[in-house]
From TrEMBL:
InterPro entries noted in UniProt: NPG1-like (IPR043376), TPR-like_helical_dom_sf (IPR011990)
Protein species of origin: Glycine soja
Region (Disordered): 1-44
Protein name: Protein NPGR1 isoform C
Gene3D superfamilies (alphabetical): Tetratricopeptide repeat domain
PANTHER family reported in the protein's UniProt record: PROTEIN NPG1, PROTEIN NPGR1
Length: 577
């Protein structure tokens, strides 16, 4: 009877295990000794006998660790996590780690040289035994996770990764998963490790763990590799942590990702390329995350490129055109977006259910450009027709865009009779929009603007006052109110309102208000005061420009220059002053 004791526990075996994977059996036979008593081969000398005895002692000691691993697995499967943890803690992993590293390195080397031969190496553990011990560490980590000790679980899981990576610094060789569970255990540890850090609340450690899984070829299946890349991209996008790439991973030099958002975008682009070549299946979440990432970073044209690369059948034609229109409109190409919406709403889709978002977006784009006013009227009418059938809550939006387009059409009309009709239709539609959508601020302010343009100044004043009451402290409300009052020739009151607005505003709003104040001062025959106001305005512009130059942010400087130019462009209501 064989007795092996450790940590106060005793395991008894009536006879040594005879499993074909048992190290005692395999290594004893490997040294030239038969497992049957009395069969000695005469070619062995004393040195070989001593080596055989040493191998046998090591094998018997290891079998004790294997027994604890098997017993711990049984307790874990039963759900006895405390008992499993106690069993696993009796395994001397620290002492066995060097032997496990040696075994993985030697056995994988032998498999490369002799892939079909018997992998028997004296004094080296079998890969089966290594796999069993790695499984024990993995189950110990899971037991700790079940008991709420996520940090300790992550530390145990790291032992598996450190052990295998030390033995295989260049990644997992092909074919190592045949005949043992080494690769399977390692892959499970790779997946578990970052999730443990997430549960523990250490997102920076989770990011490092995900990168560790991606930096070397570990023979992960394409689906699992894609899952790791997607999970890392999600943490980088939504985790709120900035974990810079270590120097050894910055293989692209200056083009290496400089922020978490850039790294997430790069990962998502890689995933989309895999979808395009059908290496992995279509995953709508990848597209959702990429849409968010490229939208918040302003790369709308790049997003449009990837929408165009999506294989047919994923999106319907109208939905694809609508998606592309959103991208190009956000990128500032409203003309391209409108052409796409014409396709989505055109005769080619006449036999399909009308794509309501395309009509609504087309009406909105046309309302922004007077040159498309007549086309916007058609879009808006269609929106109203569809909304009455299935989307009644959009009726006010349809009337609002219809009123805006009618107003724009009236201003470009050359016939007085036509202009009068369009103006009347504009007010009717905007009044309907303001009544049906009482909380729609844009409808109220559009009605006020149209009344002001048609010189219905009392009605315009009431509309703008209602807008100002609903948006307390709004710079736009103050500015519109000042314009309406100035149109009533009350320039001093208008200037007082502008002064109130200047106290509460900042940024580009302040520049617009200063310009309006200067115009009001000129209207009051106060050129010196107007010159002083313009001097302050130019000083503010110069100060903001220098600040942007100090930050060396060219994109912001260009955006600022664009806003400044738009500030000094003529506006319709300015002519009321």
């Amino acid at each position: 009877m064989l007795c092996a004791c450790s940590s106060g526990e005793q395991f008894k075996f009536e006879e040594p295990p005879h499993s074909p994977e048992s190290l005692a059996t395999r290594d004893f036979s490997a040294s030239g000794l038969s497992s049957r008593t009395g069969e000695w081969e005469p070619k062995f000398d004393d040195t070989q006998v001593e080596e055989a005895e040493s191998t046998l002692k090591d094998a018997l000691s290891l079998n004790y660790e294997e027994a604890r691993a098997l017993l711990g697995r049984l307790e874990y499967q039963r759900g006895n996590f405390d008992a499993a943890l106690q069993v696993f803690q009796g395994i001397d992993i620290k002492g066995l780690t060097p032997r496990m590293i040696k075994a993985i390195a030697e056995r994988t080397k032998q498999r490369k040289l002799r892939p079909k031969a018997d992998m028997v190496v004296p004094n080296v553990m079998s890969l089966h035994s290594v796999s069993l011990l790695l499984e024990a560490i993995l189950l110990k980590s899971r037991s700790l996770e079940e008991l709420g000790q996520c940090i300790e679980a992550a530390k145990e899981c790291r032992i598996i990764l450190d052990t295998v990576e030390s033995a295989l610094p260049n990644g997992m060789p092909e074919g190592i998963g045949e005949g043992c569970k080494l690769q399977e255990m390692f892959h499970k540890a790779l997946e578990l490790f970052p999730s443990l850090w997430i549960k523990a609340g250490f997102l920076d450690e989770a990011v490092t763990a995900y990168r560790r899984a991606l930096v070397k070829p570990w023979n992960l299946e394409p689906r699992k590799l894609a899952a790791v890349e997607k999970d890392l991209a999600m943490i980088l996008l939504y985790g709120g942590v900035e974990v810079s790439l270590p120097s050894q991973l910055q293989v692209w030099g200056k083009t290496a990702p400089k922020s978490s958002a850039e790294e997430a975008i790069l990962l998502l682009l890689i995933l989309m390329s895999k979808v395009a070549i059908r290496e992995i299946d279509w995953d709508a979440e990848i597209m959702d995350h990429l849409t968010f990432a490229l939208s918040v970073t302003g790369m709308f044209e790049l997003l449009a490129d990837h929408v165009e690369q999506i294989l047919p059948g994923i999106y319907g034609r109208a939905e694809r055109w609508y998606f592309l229109a959103l991208c190009y409109s956000a990128a500032g190409h409203d003309g391209v977006a409108l052409n796409l919406l014409r396709k989505a709403c055109g005769s080619s889709e006449a036999n399909h259910r009308p794509h309501f978002p395309s009509f609504l977006f087309g009406a909105k784009l046309c309302s922004l450009d007077p040159h498309h006013a007549h086309e916007g009227i058609k879009f808006s009418r269609e929106v109203i027709v569809i909304a009455k059938q299935q989307n009644e809550h959009f009726l006010s939006q349809g009337h609002k865009f219809l009123g805006i387009c009618y107003g724009a059409a009236a201003r470009i009309s050359v016939l007085d009779s036509e202009r009068s009709i369009f103006q009347r239709e504009s007010l009717d539609s905007l009044n309907c929009a303001a009544v049906n959508g009482s909380d729609d601020l844009e409808a109220i302010v559009s009605l006020g603007l149209e009344n002001a343009i048609q010189r219905n100044l009392d009605a315009a004043y009431n509309n703008i006052m209602m807008y100002s009451d609903m948006t307390v402290g709004s710079s736009r409300g103050w500015q519109l109110l000042a314009l309406i009052i100035s149109a009533q020739q009350r320039f001093k009151d208008a200037e007082t309102i502008v002064d109130f607005a200047l106290d509460d505003s900042g940024g580009m709003d302040q520049l617009e208000l200063l310009r309006l104040k200067a115009v009001l001062q000129i209207s009051q025959q106060q050129p010196k005061e107007a010159i002083e106001t313009y001097r302050i305005l130019l000083a503010l512009i110069q100060a903001k420009k220098e600040l942007l130059l100090q930050d060396k942010n060219i994109d912001q400087e260009q955006a600022f220059r664009h806003e400044v130019c738009s500030t000094f462009q003529g506006r319709t209501l300015t002519s009321l002053v």
